[in-house]
Amino acid sequence: MTVTRAALPSRGLMALCALILLTAACAKAPSITESYDFGGLNPQRHFMAVQTAEQMRAKGQRVWCVPFARNVSGIEIRGNAEKWWDKAKGLYPRGKNPVVGAVMAFSSTSSMPMGHIAVVSDIVSPREIRVDHANWKPNQVSLKMAVIDVSDSNDWSAVRVESQPGSFGSTYPINGFIYPTEG
Asked: CA angle, corner 53, sides to 68 and 102, nearest 5?
């Protein structure tokens, strides 16, 4: 058996490695949506939320966006939809990028004074997503509805929702996205 001595790296190679490690530490930190695994939609939660809404409708009860989004996302916030963005501060990560499983928080408007929330169910492109939500159409659950970003800055601050196939309605202001802390 022959034993050979492993060659040690040259001082130049060691210096280069040290330089790479030092500059990597100075790199820009990734945004929350790039650094956190949100896990997408939990199929059991989603199924339960849809079933609960169907049972409520069968009993003649109203189906609202808040309990539906809470059941689908697991984000435990109470109160009307227009309060969710502020209530999430310090409790849940928030941001401007859509992520599957995140709650899109619509701002309050004169036509929608209690706001609205929807759960992102699919990312189609940088400016189009699909959402699942309740009571966009009165007392109904709508699955995989298209939403497009129409903001001037491409920052998801204004959207239009496809209420009818191929027809996008009014422009609505968006506060941002609330990210669940578990899948």
From this structure: 20
Q: How far apart are CA 157 and CA 63, in angstroms?
A: 26
Residue 21 lies in a domain: no
- pTM exceeds 0.85: no
Helix (H) or strand (E) holding 143: strand 141-149
| In-domain check, residue 13 | no
Range of the domain at 100: 32-178
Provide the residue type at 66 as one letter.
V
The structural domain count of the chain equals 1
For the chain, 183 residues long, give each residue's pLDDT as a single digit of tens: 444 344 445 555 555 545 444 444 444 433 434 434 456 889 999 999 999 999 999 999 999 999 999 999 999 999 999 999 999 999 999 999 999 999 999 999 999 999 999 999 999 999 999 999 999 999 999 999 999 999 999 999 999 999 888 899 999 999 999 999 865
**Which ranges of 74-150 does DSSP label H, i.e. alpha helix?**
84-88
